[in-house]
């Protein structure tokens, strides 16, 4: 058996140790005589898996007691609707648009209520962040929504650019959660679909300040009400049990990597060597994003000669390097270098890219 070097944007690579442990435990989890997939979500075995996953996540991210951790379903896309359904409360919300995902969040929220675009960088093709002067905030907004890492455009908001604006900050962290330390207290709500940096698709993580619970109108469905989900510890109905179990194994793996500070250092080095390869290719490859907000997780790039795209992908595949085709909306290439993508994998990618440029340049 041989595994590929996997640069898929999502669902994405998982740590091999996690997959091996899941394999070992698949027929009989810790003497339960069945797999995690086959046990009651209300039994003591699964309850212990959920409690451990939450405890490990709280430790990794330093989540304070006044925040509730929810393991939901529906993906980040469902959150685009669930957030305004719960938090708008008849008011208006501000959105900063820095790429395709925050743009989609606006579109979905507009179906629910009043939304203002406080800033957008679409005119710059989402290759930079808005300046402070460009951001026009409503001081009475119910919340301010940002996407802290735009998976398609490769734009990441550095922590020091996240300022307190006086209204609750809501962040889509789907594609860079757990990749670096984060100050949870700056946020009212953090959410992420699992399939990039947490585990398999089907789990959606919501970290919400308790002050934001209980604001939903009684007309929304109970499964969509954060307060109901929080009261029931994510167990109003059957949660995505197997996904939560795998996420829990990923959290334990992260702790063994030295937690978020440990993985942060590896991620910084991975991004450094990949951007260096692109920037030093003599424009054979280019990444259009402003260097002060280049994503450390998703690295889009184009070949100067788009006629070489097909050969690039075919040769990459032959070298065991997969998942590089860019998103259909922007074209070109994209390497997603999430936590589970090792420095060895990125080194293999860089070697391939250098070799390809030498042969075709
Ligand atoms: C992938 C992604 C989404 C959509 O996630 P789903 O789980 O497919 O709904 C939303 N936001 C960001 C930043 C993403 O990377």
Secondary structure layout:
Blueprint: E1 5-6, H1 16-24, H2 44-61, E2 67-72, H3 75-87, E3 92-97, H4 100-112, E4 114-120, E5 144-147, E6 149-150, E7 155-156, E8 169-172, E9 189-193, E10 204-209, H5 226-231, H6 241-256, H7 259-279, E11 285-286, E12 298-303, H8 309-318, E13 321-322, E14 333-336, H9 343-360
Parallel strand pairs: 1-13, 3-4, 3-5, 5-8, 8-9
Antiparallel strand pairs: 2-10, 6-7, 9-10, 11-12, 12-14
Helix pairs in contact: 1-6, 2-6, 3-4, 7-9
Describe the structure.
The chain is of the alpha/beta class. It has two domains: 16-256, Aspartate Aminotransferase, domain 2 (3-Layer(aba) Sandwich); 259-360, Aspartate Aminotransferase, domain 1, CATH 3.90.1150.10. 34% of the residues lie in helices and 16% in strands. The chain is built from nine helices and 14 strands. The strands form four sheets. A seven-stranded mixed beta sheet has the order 2-10-9-8-5-3-4. A three-stranded antiparallel beta sheet has the order 11-12-14, with helices on one face. It has a two-stranded parallel ribbon with strand order 1-13. α1 crosses α6 (241-256), α3 packs across α4 and α7 runs parallel beside α9 (343-360). The relative contact order is 0.17. The mean pLDDT is 97. Pyridoxal-5'-phosphate (PLP) is lined by residues 10, 75-77, 101, 147, 151, 172, 174-175, 193, 196.
Summarize this structure briefly.
The chain is an alpha/beta fold. It contains 9 helices and 14 strands. Pyridoxal-5'-phosphate (PLP) binds at residues 10, 75-77, 101, 147, 151, 172, 174-175, 193, 196.
